[in-house]
Each structure stands twice: as C-alpha cells, then as structure tokens.
Amino acid sequence: MSSPILAPAAVLIAWSMVMWGWLLVTRIGSFKAAGVDLKTAKKGARGVDLEAVLPPEVMWKSHNYNHLMEQPTLFYAVVMILALAGFGDGLNAQLAWAYTVLRIAHSLWQATINTVPVRFLLFLLSSLCLIALSLHAVMATV
Questions:
Q1: Which of 4, 58, 82, 118 could form a disulfide bond with 93, CB atoms 3.0-4.6 angstroms apart?
Q2: Is Transmembrane helix given among the entry's keywords (predicted)?
Q3: pTM, full prediction
Q4: pLDDT band at 80 (very low <50, low <70, confident <90, very high)
C-alpha cells in the first residue's frame, strides 16, 4: 500500500531519530563537564537527576525528544487510518506535511532558543493540523 500521507509520517519518524542522536551527543558531551560518571551513577528508576546536573540548553533536546514521543503518536495513528481508508492524499496529505514541518520547527526552536511564546504558537498550529486530520479520519470511517 502506498499513500502520499505516509511520507510526512516517515519524515517525522526520521526526524525523531535525529533528535535522539542530537540529545545523545549533547548529553554525553555534558556528562564529563558536570561530573557525571555513568559507571558510578546512582542505581534506580531515574538514576542521576539530570535536570539538577546538566545545563538547561542540554536538557531542551531531551525534553523535545520526549515531546516527539507524545502527541505525534496520535498523528501516526491518524495517518494510518486515513491511508487505510483511502483518504491519504490531497488536503489530508498537505495537512500531514504541515504538521510535520511545524513539529520539526518546534523541535529546532525548543532545542536551541526555547522561548515559550514561539514554541506555543508552533505547537498550537501543529495541533490544529492534527485536529483537522482527526476529524477527517472520523468522517472517513463512519
């Protein structure tokens, strides 16, 4: 099965892996400077409380990666519903691309500058795309 709406979902998945790599490289580089030794780090569910140890600029990447594991999971489900229902082209594909581009812009903003008003606007706009896609998925399946 091939549907145009699958491409933006695949791109957002790939972007999530880019963010994972970025947070990994940034964190590992910051561990030494913060005096975190992974060999002797406290055992437990959370291990070292990195929020208290690493600079905020380092943690922003981790926060964003976590965000990419939250709302976008709904996006992937909606994309699959629309693709399977045969409504993965036209406006729905455009909305999916808009969602993906806005989420990537949100990631870049949060990982580098991280001012809340712009972050919120990017989140709001992407959420509106997801709401529209969700409504279209309902209409396509009822």
A1: 4
A2: yes
A3: 0.92
A4: very high
